[in-house]
Amino acid sequence: MADPGAAGGPTNTFVEGDNLDVLRTLPPASVDVVYVDPPYNTGNDFAYRDKHGTGRDRHRAWTEMMRPRLEAAREALAPTGAFFCSIDDNEVAHLRLLCDEVFGERHFVAQVVVNLNPKGRQLGSFFATSHEYLLVYARDESRCVLDASSESLVVEADFPLVDGDGRRYRHLPLRNTNKKFNPATAGTLHFAVWGDPESGRVDTDPFPGAVEIKPVFGDGTPAVWRWSAPRIEARADDLVCRRIRGQLGERVDVFQKDWLHEGRRKKLKTIWLAEEIGSTDTAVAELKSLIGPVFESPKPTGLVRRILECFPDDARVLDFFAGSGTTGHATALANAGDGGRRTCLSVNSAEPTRAGSNADLAGYPTVSAITVARLERVAQTVGGGLRVLRAQ
């Protein structure tokens, strides 16, 4: 099997074959990001078979199907990489336990709630479900380069103040607001500074008009600064002294000027909304615009692009449950957007599409035929190229 990140290759490589067989041919540490959207084991009639086992055995059968694939994916992941898996309530508990075994509990990163159906599914017996999950595990949490933040979440309105040179900023307390950090746990950060609330000037040494300021919590108990004394001296222009009114009355405190700048990022929350990443409806529309309405529940490219945004722009991406080809599509879009050199290896079997399904009626005899058709259209419309291989 070709290295998924081979220099000079196309953005997208597709392999038709059993994903376990393909995974076992990948060189160790040859990919940086794994995203998969496996069968949810719901028993629904989609373009593909979404059922493993029957009755009480179905969860065990599904887990036994997933285990060797996750183990092989772990071996293919670089030590700095991470694994992402979409899932719903039907198997999330079993998948979480399985991933704890395969990747190790300490490498668990997050269980993200993904709002893919903001209207809610109205046909259920009780609640109108509007979410799925995204489980995230690091290959090695101490070395993982995942940056769980995004430029798209940064908005100008969050920076309401304007400096004399036109730069926008906001005030953040220089005091550490987390009570776990206090003089008993971080004693070197509890010291006095001097500030003038009239001019705003802050210094580590006394100066005319200045008052002594020590960090305190709102209730008056001792706190610590977030910056060391040398850092305060070096960045005094980024600090300002102000009078504030707290729960104990007026006092003087120190604030950091937190600047809005190009490339600024904001930490991702563990709830991802449809208006940010797209929904199942927008995903269906994306696929329809390329090859028709041939897949019932594809993922939106915005979901995968948010994942890719957390990694360097030359990441090697793997999706071994490629489905309709969303991951390869998202990779090409990400490269087109920022000039990156990401590559994506997608794997799908030649599983027959269900007789009478939209895919079957549209002339796609196998699920892999859908993947190839989409990635061919992506290569034509977005760029990046496509290589199609068939596993031996």
Measured on Cα atoms, how large is the radius of gyration? 26 Å
Main sheet makeup: 9 strands, mixed
Structural class: alpha/beta
For the record, give the distance between the C-alpha atoms at the N and C termini, rounded to a whole number: 9 Å
The low-confidence parts are none
Proportion of beta-strand residues: 15-25%
Topology pattern, helix = H, strand = E: EHEHEHEEEEEEEEHEEEEHHHEHEHHE
Total count of helical runs of at least 4 residues: 10
Number of strands: 18
Mean pLDDT: 93
The shape is elongated
How much helix is in the residues? 25-40%
Could you characterize what this model shows?
With 392 residues, the protein is α/β, with parallel strands linked by helices. The protein contains 10 helices and 18 strands. A hairpin with a 5-residue loop joins strand 7 (161-162) and strand 8 (168-173). It is elongated, with a radius of gyration of 26 Å. Helix content is 25%, strand content 23%. The strands form 4 sheets. The protein has a 9-stranded mixed sheet with strand order 15-4-5-3-2-16-17-1-18, sandwiched between helices. Strands 7-8-13-12 form a 4-stranded antiparallel sheet, with no helix packed on it. It has a 3-stranded antiparallel sheet with strand order 10-9-11. Helix 2 runs parallel beside helix 3 (92-103) and helix 7 (301-308) crosses helix 8.
